[in-house]
Specification:
seven-stranded mixed sheet, six-stranded mixed sheet, 38% helix
Length: 505
């Protein structure tokens, strides 16, 4: 492999503010697979143990601080992260492949989320009076202890800080396992954050999932695990966490359905929303639209409008300002998309590949895939029933709303879904029947889930929710404080009330 002209970066093990020496592995640019972007540490059980013990040592002092003081440190880190945001965006594009606009949003998420969760400090320390039948009672919330964050590669910085923010303001210490596919920008952001916090509050152990990840989820000193990834890996995390009864919060992806009702109006605005909702980040977003069900009377009109707009997407290197969609991040993802396209074709579906190759001469040097629309497909085909995580989308016709809902809900996934109609009241009635953590109406894309509402999945799409104060409370333990006003104030002592203290002479 050759090294590109951009600076190469290293994602080291970070424990107690110090880097630990380890072997390394390369990180490759998915747009130019002969380019090494940097290298990441191959941390394992020893490094995880060191980071967990440092987190344990740092926990009492960090937890004892008023939330406002923790917030002040988070705000200092946010200011420092703002200073490297553009460099971070370029680095994300080089390791993930996303276009720069998407990478800028990813990079900006670190500071924005630290500021948001810091703003909740007053609520974190608030104690609530509890109604009791005697004396007085309160409910307060305590930090749990060391938290493990296992990060995804598709939006490595923003989604990691979505977990870090609530855990930090709650008073927990944290050990992060960055994704081996895209660890570089995240590791740099973690180093900036760690520099503003007491040593040991933030640790980072890059490495492979079956080494660093497995050691982290099994470590007895870790009290909570926050994981974003596949269902299969989530199941392994739960099995590992069970041995020491750890708390878990997991977002495990989705196979989001969009229902276009007979009352919808097919126009350019709707088609543009679907192009954004399907092909953002090359289809590699957990709650992108993954299946489209369209009333038969509108099916052909929608497919034509949607395909015509998708055909205008230019696919190429995300660093090129003329590129609208970058490569798939992994070779595995590229191969899966190719296989799903071939399987759809073999089943007799109509497979339409559109879009423009930005650099045809170097097309085979990256994991590039043009947008693909599949119609006339068997509803039981793999492309329909499983999460494709790539730029290929099935569009299916329906005649009856109840049947469309049955098909949309007939899945092990339940992250999000959407309903589209020119009659919002009609759409809302249908949306409330979706079996999903989020039901959108007339929108379904990145940015549609505000921080003021909880986000997460039902069924096998996850456990728990992110966003807002609820995600902070999920990183804390509620404690009941009950105080009797006087000895003997508790009624119902029965025969124990007859006992008298016998004093020795």
């Amino acid at each position: 492999m050759t090294t590109g002209t951009d600076q190469t970066h290293v994602a080291p093990v970070l424990v107690g503010g110090e880097e630990l020496p380890t072997p390394t592995a390369p990180v490759v640019n998915p747009a130019r697979t002969d380019e090494v972007v940097g290298e990441h540490a191959l941390g394992g059980e020893k490094e995880v143990d060191a980071a967990a013990r440092a987190a344990v040592d740092a926990f009492p002092a960090w937890a004892a601080l008023p939330a406002a003081e923790r917030a002040a440190a988070m705000l200092r880190a946010a200011d420092a992260l703002d200073g490297i945001r553009e460099d971070q965006a370029r680095l994300i594009t080089r390791e993930v492949g996303k276009v720069m606009g998407e990478s800028r949003a990813d990079a900006a998420g670190a500071a924005a989320l630290l500021r948001y969760f810091a703003s909740l400090a007053d609520e974190v320390d608030r104690e609530e009076a509890a109604p009791v039948t005697f004396g007085r009672g309160w409910i307060r919330h305590l930090p749990m202890g060391p938290v493990a964050v296992i990060s995804p590669w598709n939006t490595p910085v923003l989604l990691t800080f979505m977990a870090l923010g609530p855990a930090l303001i709650a008073g927990n210490t944290i050990v992060v396992k960055p994704p081996e596919i895209a660890p570089l920008a995240l590791s740099r952001a973690l180093a900036v954050l760690a520099a503003e916090l007491p040593p040991g509050v933030i640790g980072s152990v890059p490495g492979l999932g079956d080494a660093a990840g497995a050691a982290l989820t099994a470590h007895p000193l870790i009290r909570r695990i926050l994981f974003t990834g596949s269902i299969a890996t989530g199941q392994q995390v739960m099995r590992s966490a069970a041995a020491t009864v750890k708390s878990v919060g997991m977002e495990l992806g989705g196979n989001d359905a969009a229902l276009i009702l007979e009352s919808a109006r097919i126009d350019e605005a709707l088609a543009r929303e679907f192009v954004a909702g399907v092909f953002a980040a090359s289809g590699q977003v957990c709650y992108n639209v993954k299946r489209v069900y369209v009333h038969r009377s509108l099916h052909d009109e929608f497919v034509e409008a949607f395909t015509d707009l998708a055909a205008q997407l230019t696919v190429g290197d995300g660093l090129d300002p003329h590129t609208a969609m970058g490569p798939l991040t992994t070779r595995e993802g590229w191969e899966r998309t190719q296989r799903l396209r071939a399987d759809s074709d073999a089943r007799g579906a109509k497979v339409t590949t559109v879009g423009v190759k930005r650099d045809p001469a170097n097309w085979d040097g990256g994991h590039f895939q043009l947008p693909t629309v599949v119609t006339g497909i068997d509803p039981h085909a793999e492309l329909v029933t499983n999460e494709q995580f790539g730029p290929i989308i099935p569009v299916l016709a329906f005649d009856d709303e109840d049947e469309a809902l049955r098909q949309a809900n007939d899945t092990e996934y339940g992250l999000a879904g959407s309903v589209w109609s020119a009659d919002p009241d009609h759409a809302l009635r249908v949306a409330r029947r979706l079996e999903a953590g989020t039901a959108f109406v007339n929108v379904h894309r990145v940015g549609a889930s505000p921080m003021s509402v909880p986000f997460g999945g039902v069924k096998q799409s996850g456990i728990g929710r992110t966003h807002g104060i609820d995600s902070v409370r999920a990183c804390m333990e509620p404690q009941a404080v009950v105080c009797a006003d006087d000895h003997g104030a508790l009624p119902g002592l029965g025969h124990f009330a007859q006992l008298r203290l016998r004093r020795q002479p």
